[in-house]
């Protein structure tokens, strides 16, 4: 230390500047046991090889190669350096190569997906089943898009791989692709007055009803139903707001309220509960579901594979919806 308590000049350590060319020259000399042969193999001059050896000897304080008969043989220090140097070259080559080998059946993978609540009942169980079959060693982390959750930042940081969304106006800095479209329906208990409206309800009739609705993900981002109503100059009479979709069917059993969601969501719960559904006002159109991911994951083999599985499931569900129309 100097008089100011700072490291003295001799205590500063300058890290050696080494590039891959020098590593390859050094390893070539070890492999061939000759400066001449190494230079010929690499297509460079002998002085260039000798210069690297001199520099490395100065940095290590070791001769690294010594004469044994007609060959150069490595010192103990040089032998200790070989494995780390070869591994370094391999890691650097991997970093700059194309897409690494990707085998979902063998690799230990982690998929992180956030989803709109209405997909949890009919889409996510299929996704879990498909991934369990195609990637048996994978782990799948699922979460809902709760109010206040910044899913766009989570995608940017790599905390999420993909988001399944159905709300309008996704951030423009995210990649997106359509997953599926679905009919919009009104869901209600078996004794509700809408049971006598099998063809559906008009918009004027709809806004006179009492509604149960999910908590919006943000006060500035109303869901697709309330967003559409606002465009049309209407609002609905929401009597109950629930934290997530999948308690709603049980609320409908013992109330006179209506829930507006996708036909696939309704069909799923109609298999288990005495609830019914009819078409929503035609002004609502169909619900559009899409995938969101960040540009940083666009070329990722893992993300591409996951997107392909989800798109295929969406296509299968879309086929079922189309068949329901034709039937």
From TrEMBL:
Q: Which residues belong to any copy of the HTH lysR-type domain? A: 18-75
Q: Which InterPro entries match?
A: LysR-type_TF, LysR_HTH_N, LysR_subst-bd, WH-like_DNA-bd_sf, WH_DNA-bd_sf
Q: Say yes or no: keyword DNA-binding present.
A: yes
Gene3D superfamilies attached to this UniProt entry:
Periplasmic binding protein-like II (3.40.190.10), Winged helix-like DNA-binding domain superfamily/Winged helix DNA-binding domain (1.10.10.10)
PANTHER family membership:
HTH-TYPE TRANSCRIPTIONAL REGULATOR LEUO, HTH-TYPE TRANSCRIPTIONAL REGULATOR LEUO-RELATED
What family is this? Belongs to the LysR transcriptional regulatory family.
Identify this protein by name. Answer: LysR family transcriptional regulator
Source species: Pukyongiella litopenaei
């Amino acid at each position: 230390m100097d008089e100011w308590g700072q490291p003295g000049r001799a205590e500063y350590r300058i890290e050696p500047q080494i590039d891959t060319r020098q590593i390859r020259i050094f390893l070539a000399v070890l492999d061939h046991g000759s400066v001449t042969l190494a230079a010929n193999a690499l297509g460079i001059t002998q002085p260039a090889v000798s210069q690297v050896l001199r520099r490395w000897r100065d940095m290590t304080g070791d001769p690294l190669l010594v004469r044994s008969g007609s060959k150069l043989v490595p010192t103990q220090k040089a032998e200790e350096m070989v494995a780390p140097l070869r591994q370094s070259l391999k890691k650097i080559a991997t970093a700059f190569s194309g897409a690494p080998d990707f085998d979902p059946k063998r690799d230990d993978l982690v998929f992180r997906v956030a989803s709109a609540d209405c997909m949890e009942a009919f889409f996510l169980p299929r996704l879990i089943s498909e991934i369990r079959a195609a990637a048996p060693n994978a782990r799948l982390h699922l979460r809902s898009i709760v109010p206040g959750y910044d899913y766009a930042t989570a995608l940017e940081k790599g905390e999420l791989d993909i988001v399944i969304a159905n709300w309008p106006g996704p951030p423009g800095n995210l990649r997106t692709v359509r997953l599926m479209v679905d009919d919009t329906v009104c869901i209600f208990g078996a004794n509700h007055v809408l049971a006598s409206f099998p063809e559906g309800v008009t918009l004027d009739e709809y806004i006179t009803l009492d509604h149960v609705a999910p908590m919006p993900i943000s006060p500035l981002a109303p869901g697709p139903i309330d967003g559409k109503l606002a465009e049309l100059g209407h609002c609905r009479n929401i009597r109950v707001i629930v934290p997530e979709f999948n308690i709603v069917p049980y609320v409908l059993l013992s109330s006179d309220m209506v829930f507006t969601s996708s036909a696939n969501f309704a069909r799923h719960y109609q298999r288990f509960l005495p609830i019914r559904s009819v078409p929503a006002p035609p002004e609502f159109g169909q619900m559009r579901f899409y995938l969101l991911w960040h540009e940083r994951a666009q070329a990722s083999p893992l993300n591409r594979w996951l997107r392909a599985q989800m798109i295929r499931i969406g296509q299968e569900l879309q086929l079922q919806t189309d068949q329901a129309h034709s039937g």
